[in-house]
Design brief:
heterodimer, A: about 45% strand, B: alpha/beta, 9 helices, binds adenosine-5'-diphosphate, binds magnesium ion
């Protein structure tokens, strides 16, 4: 890659671990291009990042044809610095679905960065990100949505929720909307919280150990990210991988 | 079964329980009545071990009958324990974590049951029951055994099984939450139930169902109930052996069922002042 190393002033890199990125930056190949032909569906499921020198990078540039669907479900966990970057350009009546869980601990920096371009009318996008952060981990979601002037009837949704297990952990959520059409629905919500103490005591009062209570609540919390996995076996696979990572977190 | 002596408890910096003493024997149902803010829920939470409800002095001993010898056991039930002679196992409740108190046999019926999004009632209850069984050295119930038990208890409380498939208390009405507490109690089958205003929010029919549920589940020679309530109506269904008035962090008066009727007629103030 010939581009210069990004800086913090680049909006899409403001929370990145640039120090970790620097040594491998020249080796990065640039985005993988995916074309989803009209009417078809392409699904990606990533339950672990490919890590080189502590850095795990997924970089996709997806063009979604008319009435086509692209789905990606991703578990960000196994890298000192992990980044899932998806640029999706939507055709007429197409759909983009992203479900992501960021599970970080120690001094990990993990982020999901999307750029959703509603270039044509009638397309829908839905992005659900759940982060569980322990230790001094930093988990971020940056979601830019661009709706072109003639992309009427666009429906673009983002739901971002983070759970901090320790005081030192940080969650960032940054939606960025650039909407030039007028007949558009853009629902977005972001929350940061911690484990519900009342629920923890309620569970304990029924005999559930603190560790199991935590596990049940976190499992329920991140399940939202994977409800859109259509295939039961695939959904269970990524959920059980997530659970395995969660158990190691706590 | 439960012996509370001179219990003092604070919430934040405020002392709420100011030397409360109370003894419950196996086979007894005790009602606690008292004005708003008297410390009834604080007592329930202190017994349950809720964080933030700090016991500053006093003691709470909890005694359960030791499992009966196989020859003596009938219908799988432990024989009535006579507290003066039976060989019970006594634990210091205040020394235990909340989940350990539950496994020891204590059930807390919440005045405001908590919602747990994303966790189904059935999963929650199965995990609860099996966590308790495991900690007592018993085998966990299989899925089929558990569903059978859950169906039976749901029917007892006239609760639709579909509600048990939904997330814990999420979107339940006030009355449904209370009924759900009683289904949980039926499934968990505790030794001592501390029920905090289980009757509030119930209509007349639900009150009757809940009342007969409490009798069916807890009116046993080896069990006891501490029933916190404001209303005589529940006590018509679940007949208490003793009625206590809790005011300003202490038990100020104790009597039989007639005390509840007197309270209903004369109000707390008159009785607390006369005490
Ligand atoms: N979490 C809390 N923080 C501060 N004060 C509390 C808290 N819980 C209870 N209290 C106070 O303690 C007193 C007793 O409350 P509570 O035990 O709920 O009374 P009751 O159940 O008898 O109505 C009240 O004055 C109440 O305001
Ligand atoms: Mg109360």
């Amino acid at each position: 890659m010939n581009a210069p190393l990004p800086t913090r002033r680049d909006e899409a890199w403001r929370y990145a671990d640039l120090k970790a990125l620097e040594p491998i930056w020249p080796k990065l190949a640039g985005p993988e291009k995916i074309n989803v032909p009209a009417g078809e569906t392409v699904s990606r499921q990533i339950d672990a990042l490919t890590v080189v020198d502590g850095v795990g990078m997924v970089d996709l540039d997806v063009t979604i044809g008319d009435k086509a669907t692209f789905q990606i479900h991703v578990l960000a966990h196994n890298a000192d610095y992990g980044r899932i970057q998806v640029k999706a350009t939507l055709g007429n009546g197409s759909h983009f679905e992203l479900g992501g869980a960021i599970l970080g601990s120690g001094s990990q920096t993990l982020e999901i960065v999307t750029e959703t371009i509603h270039a044509e009318p009638n397309a829908t996008s839905n992005q659900v990100v759940r982060s569980v952060l322990a230790g001094k981990a930093v988990g971020s979601f940056l979601g830019k949505i661009n709706v072109a002037r003639h992309a009427q009837k666009t429906d673009a949704a983002q739901s971002v929720k983070s759970m901090l297990l320790d005081r030192g952990a940080t969650a960032n959520a940054k939606p960025e909307l650039e909407i030039f059409a007028d007949d558009v629905k853009c629902a977005h919500g972001a929350t940061v919280g911690e484990l519900d103490k009342q629920a923890l005591f309620y569970m304990a009062s029924r005999g559930i150990t603190p560790a199991l209570a935590k596990k049940l609540m976190l499992q329920a919390f991140i399940a939202d990210a994977f409800v859109s996995v259509a295939d039961d076996t695939e959904r269970e696979a990524i959920e059980s991988k997530a659970l395995e990572v969660l158990e190691a977190l706590s | 079964m439960l012996k509370i002596e001179n219990l003092h408890a604070t919430v934040g910096d405020t002392e709420i329980l100011k030397g409360l003493s109370l003894t419950l024997n196996a086979g007894e149902i005790h009602a606690i009545m008292g004005p708003n803010g008297a410390g009834k829920s604080t007592l329930a939470y202190a017994l349950g071990g809720r964080p933030g409800y700090e016991v500053t002095s006093g003691s709470v001993d909890f005694t359960t009958a030791v499992r009966a010898e196989p020859v003596e056991a009938q219908d799988g039930e432990a024989p009535a324990s006579d507290p003066s002679t039976s060989s019970g196992r006594t634990v210091d409740l205040l020394d235990m974590d909340p989940h350990e108190r539950a496994a020891a046999g204590i059930f807390l019926g919440f005045q405001y049951p908590v919602e747990i999004p994303g966790v189904s009632n059935l999963q929650f209850l199965r995990e609860s029951l099996n966590a308790q069984r495991t900690s007592r050295g018993e085998d966990p119930l299989s899925g089929a055994e558990f569903i059978k038990l859950a169906k039976e208890k749901a029917a007892l409380l006239k609760m639709d099984m579909d509600m048990l498939k939904r997330a814990v208390n999420v979107g339940f009405s006030g009355g449904e939450k209370k009924r759900n507490e009683m289904v949980q109690m039926g499934i968990i089958n505790p030794k001592l139930a501390i029920l905090d205003e289980t009757d509030s929010g119930l209509d007349i029919d639900a009150l009757r169902t809940v009342g007969s549920g409490i009798n069916a589940i807890m009116r046993k020679p080896d069990k006891a109930v501490l029933l916190i309530t404001h209303y005589q109506r529940l006590l018509d269904e679940v007949k208490p052996d003793f009625v206590h008035v809790l005011a300003d962090g202490r038990i100020v008066k104790t009597g039989g069922p007639e005390l509840a009727i007197q309270l209903e007629n004369e109000g707390y103030e008159a009785i607390a002042e006369a005490a």
